[in-house]
Specification:
The chain is α+β, with helices and mostly antiparallel strands and 237 residues long. The protein is 56% helix and 6% strand. It is globular, with a radius of gyration of 18 Å. It comes from Bradyrhizobium sediminis.
Length: 237
């Protein structure tokens, strides 16, 4: 079966967490808006039945599945990227939902007053939000996942076997390095396990090939991970 992934064509965004899972699995998929244009994606969103609220969403046969964590829940059990037991599947889904919360907080560092305003209209609140994010929220979130790696004693969050959560944590580390290079460089000494996980994911054959291909959209100033030098200028950790 050939999957169809629907997401904005010019950014990594939330769709990148799905792309990483599809690439690691070696799945056959079309990145529809990039290949056929935005019209194809909008047509799906305006259709009947159970239309998704927003991208990303995945078409798998007759199924249309929205929300990043929900898509990964579906893909994980079908491509060996989640535990086989019900308890294990729910556990990694829970972890992915936690990552979803973190992604929202990352977005809000540069748009704390909402996405309808330009960054230039909320620069002062963004500075305050970013300082609080790095002082309180990053240690809480990344410290939690660092602790999970220590407790399992395995190379991955759930133990010895890679899951889609490990791929998502790779993207979190990669994205924070892009958006906040100075802050992240200083913080990485506190999360050696996550840094090691990031490096091992990057070295996996399918992921390595993907990262060096034109299928991997470069980070830019329109996605979740945006680089504003003034937000990275003060190390408040």
């Amino acid at each position: 079966m050939r999957y169809e992934l629907y997401y904005w064509p010019g950014i990594q965004g939330r769709g990148e967490f799905v792309r990483l899972a599809l690439e690691e699995a070696g799945a056959d998929y079309a990145d529809v808006a990039r290949e056929r244009g935005m019209g194809a994606m909008m047509k799906m969103m305006e259709g009947g039945g159970t239309p998704p609220f927003a991208p990303p969403f995945l078409k798998a046969g007759k199924l249309v599945i929205g929300q990043t964590a929900n898509i990964l829940l579906y893909l994980g059990s079908r491509h060996g990227l989640a535990p086989k037991t019900e308890a294990g599947k729910l556990w990694v889904h829970q972890l992915q939902l936690t990552i979803t919360d973190l992604v929202l907080e990352i977005h809000d560092t540069h748009h704390p007053l909402g996405p309808t305003l330009y960054y230039e209209d909320q620069r002062a609140p963004a500075k305050r939000r970013t300082g609080e994010f790095w002082k309180e929220r990053v240690p809480k979130y990344l410290g939690y996942f660092e602790g999970l790696l220590e407790n399992t004693g395995g190379p991955c969050v759930t133990g010895r076997r890679l899951s889609y959560v490990d791929l998502s944590l790779f993207q979190i580390v990669e994205g924070l390095r892009y958006a906040f290079p100075k802050r992240m460089k200083a913080f990485e000494r506190d999360i050696p396990g996550l840094v090691d996980l990031h490096d091992r994911v990057a070295a996996r054959p399918n992921i390595k090939a993907y990262l060096s291909s034109d299928r991997r959209i470069p980070f830019n100033e329109e996605g979740i991970f945006r680089r504003y030098k003034e937000l990275d200028s003060q190390l408040v950790i």
